[in-house]
Amino acid sequence: MIVEPKIRGFICTTAHPDGCARHVADQIAVVRSRGPIENGPKRVLVVGSSTGYGLSSRIAAAFGCGASTIGVFFEKPGSERRPGTAGWYNSAAFEKEAADAGLYARSFNGDAFSDEMKATVIEAIKEDLGQIDCVVYSLASPRRIDPKTGETYKSVLKPIGETYTNKNLNTATKVVDEVTIEPAEGDDIEQTVAVMGGEDWEMWIDAMLEAGVLAPGATTVAYSYIGPEVTWPIYKNGTIGRAKEDLEKSQRALDGKLAPLDGKAWVSVNKALVTQASSAIPVVPLYISLLYKVMKARGSHEDCIEQMDRLFRERLCSGTPQPDEAGRIRIDDWEMDPAVQAEVDELWTRVDSDNLLELADVEGYESSFLRLFGFGLEGVDYSADTDPATGVPSIS
Questions:
Q1: Residue 208 and which of 346, 349, 353, 393 are 20 to 30 A apart at CA?
Q2: Rounded (10°) CA dihedral 80, 81, 84, 88
Q3: Helix axis angle, 17-33 relative to 86-100, nearest 10°?
Q4: Are 302 and 314 in contact (CB under 8 A)?
Q5: Is 370 helix (H, G, I), strand (E, B) or coil?
Q6: Separation of alpha carbons 362 and 385, rounded Å
Q7: Per-residue pLDDT band at 234 (split at 50, 70, 90)
């Protein structure tokens, strides 16, 4: 099958198996080029391991730390007639690369929020690895089924208290227009917290503690974002911001639960990047396009893999995590450099449809978006047939 990108709104409905494999290989090359990560974990579980920061975390752990990894995700395999999701092909490529490098890798596809998945993964840990040194929690989902009550929660991206209007980039038409978002109502906040907050992270760690599969000194890290004031109404001070506050509450609770093991829980605040999740947030694509323009000019731009390599190499494994006043690791430090933000702020006041291509890195945004789905990678022949039924070795 010849697979081409088909974009609908803020998602691409197709993915290229060979392109995803190249994307994974390119990330592995970045980590390897920087040498081994000293004092890194050797047995790592990544919950939400198939795309974005979760995938890059698994790559950094495996190919930087030499870790055995278990990945959990919810992806759709391909068939002879239809491509699967990018996360499925990413995971297939990761496992092949890990096998070639002599690294243990095992994956599980299903509902990470369920008790059944937790039990299945814990049993695999007992059978194969004994215990886990590091748990990365990197789930991004629009909904969650409560494993105790069966209720389905749905997250929303809304401001709180008042209507929010600001500039927005229509990535399909390359038009800078305005977006107006009505405030949260009813139980929007509670629903979003239930999906994107810290409850499930705690459930994973609680289950692992009860089963005795967390090693002495085990660490766990979950990911968050704060960003600049221009995005705060829709992010930091909006419904998703409330969920991230709940995540930090869970981090503090997990610190106490892990203390008997001399373990530690962290929240890492990461940089704004093009991911499947960030593409869906109004205002953010325009901000990212301007940010890329500034940071690339300064030579400080990082993609997911550079961020996660630096997180493991310089913070989690170095003995110097450099937490902020709230106890968070700030791997968004280069983004939030006052000089960078001043430049972005100035561009934000001027950007419009006429000067968009001059002031913003729209090409870089589009390229990053397409790479998420395996398109636009060098060394891939997109005119050639590819096998959409490519399987993940440990699953299929």
A1: 393
A2: 0
A3: 50
A4: no
A5: helix
A6: 30
A7: confident
**The residue count for the chain:** 396
Residues forming beta bridges with residue 220, ordered by sequence position: 135, 265
Rounded Cα distance between 156 and 178, Å, is: 19
Annotate 361-395 with b (16+ C-beta within 10 A) or e (fewer).
bbebbbebbbbbbbbbbeebebeeebebbbbbebb
DSSP string, 172-187: TTTEEEEEEEPPP-TT
Considering the chain, what percentage of its residues have pLDDT values greater than 70?
Answer: 100
Q: Where are the domains of the chain?
A: 7-371
Q: Which of 134, 62, 159 minimizes the C-alpha distance to 104?
A: 62
Cα(374)–Cα(367) distance, rounded to whole angstroms? Answer: 10
pLDDT in tens, 169-210: 988 889 999 999 999 999 999 999 999 999 999 999 999 999
The token pair that represents 162 in the structure block: 């008042």
List the catalytic residues.
235
pLDDT (tens digit, 9 = 90+) per residue, 97-150? 999 999 999 999 999 999 999 999 999 999 999 999 999 999 989 999 999 999
User: With 0-12 CB in 10 A as exposed, 13-18 as middle and 19+ as buried, what is 65?
Assistant: buried
Beta strand pairing call for 264-269 and 214-224 = parallel
Contact between 240 and 155 under an 8 Å Cβ cutoff? The reply is yes
Instruction: Provide the pLDDT for residue 281.
Output: 82
Angle at 265 between CA 264 and CA 270, to 5 degrees: 130
d(CA 248, CA 254): 10
Quote the CATH superfamily of domain 7-371. Answer: NAD(P)-binding Rossmann-like Domain (3.40.50.720)
Determine the residue type at 73. Answer: F
Cα dihedral 241→247→248→254 (10° resolution): 180
